[in-house]
Amino acid sequence: MEQLIFFHDHIMMILMMIVTTVSYTMIMLILNKNIDRNLLEGQMIELIWTVTPAMTLFFIATPSLRLLYLMDEINNPMMTTKAVGHQWYWTYEYSDFNDMEVESYMINQEESNQLRLLDVDNRMMLPSNTFIRMIVTSTDVIHSWTLPSTGVKIDGTPGRLNQASLMFNRNGLMYGQCSEICGTNHSFMPIVVESMPINMFIKWM
């Protein structure tokens, strides 16, 4: 997630430079009263406005490609978890710990002190400051396991295992939802991850 934030700042800096340059050029052209009716072409200016966008795209694409590889790379994960999408709930498997499996359903809206359409009966518990391999699949239709606050979105496809690397830098609750239209109750299969210190996670297991 930290690398995504750096990439966002990098892109915003380039966009601000482009907006500033284009705005300045437009204002100067509007205020300029001198018109050369005999000017039909300018090879130098055409070369500049061809090379400059190409170089700009290069500076955008280079960190973007690097980030794609970083997101797929697993840095010696300490544990592996698996999320399986169903119509319309999630199951979480902790294969490193005696094949433990937890079913996660959305909590009834009538229950008090709960976030509407976001809280579940069994949260996914994960340790913080730990490299985790996250595997996502599905048993019926295409689902998508998404945690917006961490920048993670993994499609769950029947018959296929998709993976990503996770590492939470802080403890707390993170909320998400299925991000793929998967049927009638697509809106009612939320995701809640509770990140905790590794010693508390071991006690929970």
Automatic annotation (TrEMBL):
One MF term in the entry's GO annotations: cytochrome-c oxidase activity
Keyword terms of this UniProt record: Copper, Electron transport, Magnesium, Membrane, Metal-binding, Mitochondrion, Mitochondrion inner membrane, Respiratory chain, Translocase, Transmembrane, Transmembrane helix, Transport
GO biological process, one term: ATP synthesis coupled electron transport
InterPro entries the record matches: CcO_II, CcO_II-like_C, CcO_II_C, Copper_CuA, Cupredoxin, Cyt_c_oxidase_su2_TM_dom, Cyt_c_oxidase_su2_TM_sf
The keyword Amino-acid biosynthesis is annotated on this UniProt entry: no
Glycoprotein is among the record's keywords: no
Task of the protein: Component of the cytochrome c oxidase, the last enzyme in the mitochondrial electron transport chain which drives oxidative phosphorylation. The respiratory chain contains 3 multisubunit complexes succinate dehydrogenase (complex II, CII), ubiquinol-cytochrome c oxidoreductase (cytochrome b-c1 complex, complex III, CIII) and cytochrome c oxidase (complex IV, CIV), that cooperate to transfer electrons derived from NADH and succinate to molecular oxygen, creating an electrochemical gradient over the inner membrane that drives transmembrane transport and the ATP synthase.
Quaternary structure, from the entry: Component of the cytochrome c oxidase (complex IV, CIV), a multisubunit enzyme composed of a catalytic core of 3 subunits and several supernumerary subunits. The complex exists as a monomer or a dimer and forms supercomplexes (SCs) in the inner mitochondrial membrane with ubiquinol-cytochrome c oxidoreductase (cytochrome b-c1 complex, complex III, CIII).
Protein name, entry field: Cytochrome c oxidase subunit 2
Species: Asceles sp. JAR-2014
